[in-house]
Amino acid sequence: MNNNFYAIVMVLFLTISCKNETKKIEEVSKTEFTEELNISGRYVSDDYSKRSEGYDWIAISVTEAESNQFNISVRSRADKKKPTCTFDAVANKVDDKVYQTQIDGKSILFEFTNVQISITTENKDDEGLLNFYCSGGASIAGTYQKINEPIDQDQIDKTKFNSVLNLQDVGFNVSSIEKDGENTLTIFTFGLNEREYQETFNIEGEEVINAEVEDLNSDGSPELFVFTRSVGSGSYGNVYAFSVNNKKSMSEVYFQPTAENSEINKGYMGHDEFSLVENTLGQRFPIYKEGDTNAEPTGGTRQVSYRLVEGEAMRKLEVDKITEY
Asked: What b/e string do you get for 93-112 counting C-beta neighbours within 10 Å, with b at 16 or more?
């Protein structure tokens, strides 16, 4: 009788213990699943720890962009030789751990944990694309570890933005670099039939956040758009636009600053988003009412689309539609 009693007690004890352990595992799993990733930050390749010994290395900066987007910036050592890898992109959310960007119709994936980032292509056959942004046979593909301290500023490439774009057999190289206290934007083309374009602009107080190409007026030659924003809390957007002329040369396109455009500037206090939507340039920004703080607009959102038109002296971007919601 006693033996049976103790056996029953032991079974009950083991059953309760098992249920408690299962509950603990479920709680831990639930915590790990719901834990919000801290994606923003700085990541480095393994050789970064050996930089004092002369090893080359790659660093990645990840910063928040607009909703469900992050800016991805890949830079390498540049104090002893030309930088080996340079890459910039805006990555869009796929799920809580994965973001992606499209390059020439191919997907580059950025997979995060709280301690690392891995860069791959969605299609294994596209891996060669990740070599394009590096020299000497290197690639931006791989896994990088997160660090808490700032990147070594004595060694890092000072290029703020770099992008190579192609459309309709015309190529564009867009780069921004801070040097001697000045921030500049440099644009040059390759593939024009008569005269290549190469100009440098002083964009002090602005930073380049993205560049896109599209044939807005459907004339068989592309347009280039470089999107910038002011440095500081206002984040005022601006557009540097250029139009290729029959694949022979390239000219600037006039874009009226939003703050100066009476059609759309009522309630405008920055925080613009720009993108190309089919054959138009799209802009979106919050509307501020009197008394609103910079961080809390209450007037809704204004969406503006621009079309490319012929002007007297140059082509220009003209407001086409305005929508508020």
From this structure: eeeeeebbbebeebebbbbb
